[in-house]
Amino acid sequence: NGGRIEGGLGRFGGLLSGRLLHGAANALLADGPQPYGYHDALARGEVSLGSGTLSVTGFRNEESVNLDPLLGLETQGLAFVDTPGARSAATTDAAWSNSVVSTRFHTPVGAWRLGATAALSDYDARLPVGDTTLTIIGGSSAKAHFALNADRPTRWGNASLGLSYDDVRVKERTDQIVGTALGTSSRSVRGRTAGGYVEASRNFEGLTVRGGLRADAFEGHGRLELSPRASLLVPLSETALFRIAAGRFTQLTRRSDPAVESELGIRVPGLGDEPLLAVATATHLVVSLDQRLTSSVTVGLEGFVKSFNGLPDAGGDRVNASGMDIRVARN
After folding, report:
1. CA–CA gap between residue 203 and residue 153 (Å, rounded)
2. Whole-angstrom Cα distance, residue 143 to residue 55?
3. CA atoms within 13 A on the CB side of 80
4. Which three-class secondary structure state does DSSP give residue 286?
5. Measured between alpha carbons, how far apart are the two ends of the chain, in Å?
6. Alpha carbon separation from 146 to 43, 104, 152, 196 (Å, rounded)
7. Do 78 and 111 contact (CB within 8 A), yes or no?
8. φ, ψ for residue 17 (rounded to 5)?
9. Contact 146, 120 (CB under 8 A)
10. Is 25 helix (H, G, I), strand (E, B) or coil?
11. Disulfide check for 83: which of 106, 129, 138, 240 has CB 3.0–4.6 Å away?
């Protein structure tokens, strides 16, 4: 079931919505409880302040899958285990959840358009594995993001610049129950990043050239990371557009959650010495061609070559990827 309320009054506007998956139909049509759980809620408010606009958005969702419908593991008395994951789910459910709260303010100042953003987000998940011995693998990450941006038109095109600050906290935890004994291992890490960028674009008789440079400083990294990027858009006709883009991106990357390496028996690795967070870079070259077939249908063909360095799961080795995508979009 779901519902939505939206409206406005003068300078104010707002929206409320929510969805819930219940087990009423499952109780009538199936034998047993609903194995899948889901609910979410979204709230948004906006107000005009002089020539500017302030908006606040909040979102929360929780999902779960019952991996033990016969409750065979619940008899181990594990309801007291407090692991990361949606707290409303049962102990033997695989569960994950997201929470986001963001505030944005935009206003013109002279020829510039200024924007400010503050956002908090949280993600957590847990996965129970095992048959006679239950292990619950949990992980969570929380992020605070703050940004200031400005852009303006110029005689030759458009210019933009900005500053940002991010604070990321990551935690892993493993609870293993053997009989009535509970063994727990956990670790956490924090990473902070400050950065800024400049970007400009110009139109040359239909051709659009865009270029920019971003600089990021990562806590404990020891050097400033520079990430240049550029793109060229060439209209081949009134209905066809060619694009080529290249660039480098650098960001904090979280390693994958520990894998469960078995098909029938369960073997859960411990929390190794690999870093939870690492500074990773991606270099890419993308070439695409889009063709508008009708007023509402567009077909696109895109080829890419990418190279990744510093990924925690790659052990410091370079990882390469290439491929081609075909897109069909209808307006």
Report:
1. 12
2. 20
3. 6
4. strand
5. 28
6. 20, 10, 21, 12
7. no
8. -150, 155
9. no
10. helix
11. 138
* CB neighbourhood size of 193 (10 A): 20
288-314 average pLDDT score: 91
Tokens of 266: 């369960």
Confidence band (pLDDT; 50, 70, 90) for 1?
confident
Q: Enter the tokens of residue 15.
A: 């929206």
Most trustworthy range by pLDDT among 220-224, 253-257, 268-272: 220-224
Partners of residue 328 on adjacent β-strands: 299
Predicted confidence at residue 16, as pLDDT, reads: 95
Question: What's the confidence (pLDDT) of residue 258?
Answer: 47
Contacts of 73 (CB under 8 A, 6+ apart): 91, 92, 128, 130, 134
Residue linked to tokens 């957590």: 124
With contact defined as beta carbons under 8 Å apart, do 227 and 249 qualify?
A: yes
pTM: 0.80
Task: Determine the residue type at 188.
Answer: S
Q: Which residue has the tokens 């567009």?
A: 298
d(CA 99, CA 117): 17
CA separation for the pair 271, 263 (Å, rounded): 21
Q: Using CA atoms in the order 254, 255, 258, 261, what is the torsion angle rounded to 10 degrees?
A: 140
